[in-house]
Write a structure and sequence with these properties.
globular
């Protein structure tokens, strides 16, 4: 259904009567390039999926590979990717794609919602196991006959904790391995355990008692924190358990255990961790940090690879992109899988796996440039909102993207009723140019429409056209803490003729630096502000553990 303003832009209704309040965005443009060494046709570049794509889980089904990552408070949730070469990934769907499919719970924090997901496949059915954190019922599984969907409504597992992962044993039995607190009193802050329990999908219920596999971590004497993201796989008669510990920051590390029986006991790899960067010089150039949350994948030729998350700080431990998806080969040492010998740096350029190249409509790493006109009936797969839409506040079509201003500002997420009118795409480079062109917007007093760049409800910039008591203007707002007005503080205001449409708004990012500009004609840019502090949108400053997104935004204050 088209909004009245969209019909006006198409010439069907008069602009004056139909467009008050609605903003029509003609397009969004993106160009990003973080540089790096050149690569040839035998190599690939890490990360393989750049930007806010954390907690990767990958599986092979025949000649095809599938990948899922977490999304937290964003909808659609849990993007599904396909590849034939483990390197070039194309999004084909989302496991959570219907507004009524799952209740995200409260809106208190954008970092709540859909945590780490894991993929599995058996007998023609695909499974995604996940935790809806701070939702009513916790851990669940959704299923599909094709990974592009449609995906089922949740099958609730009834297990507490986070990060469930499915393992199907040779006899066909299904098991859930997951993180939770141990029984009894916690010995220290961050004390967690890994548990295993059988699950009957026909009866949709747990079977038998749950079994403790790991209490604390690989070396309990060191009080390891937050063992999580467990997976089980079988190889050469051994059951291998792998999980991350140390938290999802710089102390992150991937550990491995093994047992001759599924239920244990499991012995830790004497050479643990299988992957970490926590022992390296924090002052090294171009660091890759926080490596962990890995999953192992065996190729048809018997070789092994691992996907895992990592971060790329631009200064100290500051990064705006969130945790990204990386790929490395796995070597076996005396029956143990090693992703990277301890003390070695994660390589940016790696030899490609010996697999057929995968056609890729749009790259997910390296230099990326695109233009989105929103001319399809629905949002493209990679675009998101904050929680599922509660009302129909946006439309897409031949005229572009039309937003009706919402009463909830970005900074009010969780604090006021409603939902921000914000359509988001992940930022994938620290060096990037983000632009949007507003074709039509006649704001009422207190209304604004423009381009937002956000880390979370407490850290974001908004560059937009608004009407205040003095008239229409291009204004720049910033929110950089939990205090103050929900819409942030206004940093700049430039008066604008009310009929000055179309208008193009632009953010330019260069690591910790941010510039904001606008143009009323192609290439004729006017600076709104320069040298702004983009590190306010880093995880270190804004908090949480997600990554930056950007996109069209409209609000009514």
């Amino acid at each position: 259904m088209l909004t009245r303003c969209a019909l006006a832009v198409m010439g069907i209704l008069s602009m004056a009567s139909a467009c008050a309040g609605d903003a029509v965005f003609r397009e969004v443009r993106y160009a990003g390039d973080d540089g790096g060494p050149p690569i040839d046709t035998t190599q690939f570049r890490n990360p393989v999926v750049a930007g806010f794509y954390p907690d990767p889980s990958a599986i092979r089904v025949g000649d095809d590979f599938y990948l899922v990552t977490s999304t937290f408070g964003y909808f659609p949730g849990l993007p599904i990717f396909h590849s034939t070469d483990l390197v070039s990934w194309t999004q084909i769907g989302n496991a959570i794609h219907r507004p009524g499919q799952i209740d995200y719970g409260d809106k208190e924090e954008l970092t709540r919602g859909l945590f780490a997901a894991t993929l599995a496949h058996r007998n023609g059915t695909f499974y995604v196991a996940n935790t809806c954190f701070y939702c009513d019922r916790g851990n669940f599984v959704v299923t599909a006959k094709h990974p592009a969907g449609p995906w089922s409504d949740p099958i609730w597992l009834g297990a507490s904790g986070i990060d469930p992962s499915l393992f199907f044993d040779d006899d066909g039995s299904a098991w859930v391995v997951h993180n939770d607190v141990p029984d009894g009193k916690l010995r220290y802050d961050g004390h967690r355990a890994v548990w295993l329990q059988r699950f009957d999908f026909d009866r949709r219920e747990r079977v038998g008692e749950r079994i403790l596999l790991v209490d604390g971590g690989a070396d309990p004497s060191t009080n390891p924190e937050h063992v999580e993201g467990p997976h089980i796989f079988k190889h050469d008669g051994w059951y291998y358990l792998t999980a991350a510990e140390g938290g999802t920051g710089e102390q992150h590390a991937q550990m491995v255990w093994r047992s001759r029986t599924l239920t244990g006991p499991y012995a830790a790899f004497p050479g643990n961790p299988s992957l970490t960067q926590r022992d390296l010089d924090p002052k090294r150039a171009d660091p890759v940090t926080s490596t962990g949350h890995a999953q192992f994948v065996q190729l048809k030729d018997g070789s092994w690879w691992a996907v895992f998350l990592a971060t790329r700080p631009y200064r100290g431990n500051q990064y705006n992109l969130g945790r990204e998806t990386f790929l490395l080969p796995v070597t076996w040492q005396d029956g143990w899988p090693v992703i990277l010998p301890r003390g070695e740096r994660v390589p940016v350029v790696v030899k490609r796996p010996d697999l057929p190249r995968n056609p890729q409509p749009l790259p997910t790493t390296g230099p990326i440039e695109w233009r989105e006109r929103f001319d399809a009936p629905a949002l493209p797969l990679s675009w998101m909102t904050l929680h599922p839409p509660e009302t129909k506040w946006y439309t897409t079509g031949a005229e572009g993207l039309t937003l009706s201003p919402g009463v909830m500002p970005l900074g009010g997420f969780g604090a006021t009723p409603g939902q921000p009118s914000y359509v988001a795409h992940r930022l994938q480079h620290h060096n990037a140019t983000l632009e949007t062109t507003i074709a039509s917007f006649d704001p009422a007093p207190g209304e604004l429409a423009g381009l937002a760049l956000i880390q979370n409800e407490y850290g974001h910039y908004v560059l937009g056209v608004e009407r205040d008591a003095r008239g229409v203007a291009v204004s720049l707002y910033r929110r950089s803490s939990r205090e103050g007005a929900k819409e942030g503080e206004r940093l700049a205001r430039i008066p604008l003729d009310a009929s000055a449409m179309p208008i193009t708004l632009r953010f330019r990012l260069d690591g910790p630096r941010l510039d904001a500009d606008y143009a009323l004609a192609p290439g004729e840019w006017t600076s709104v502000a320069s040298g702004l502090d983009a590190s306010l949108l880093s995880v270190e400053t804004a908090g949480g553990f997600i990554g930056n997104t950007f996109g069209p935004y409209a609000v009514r204050r």
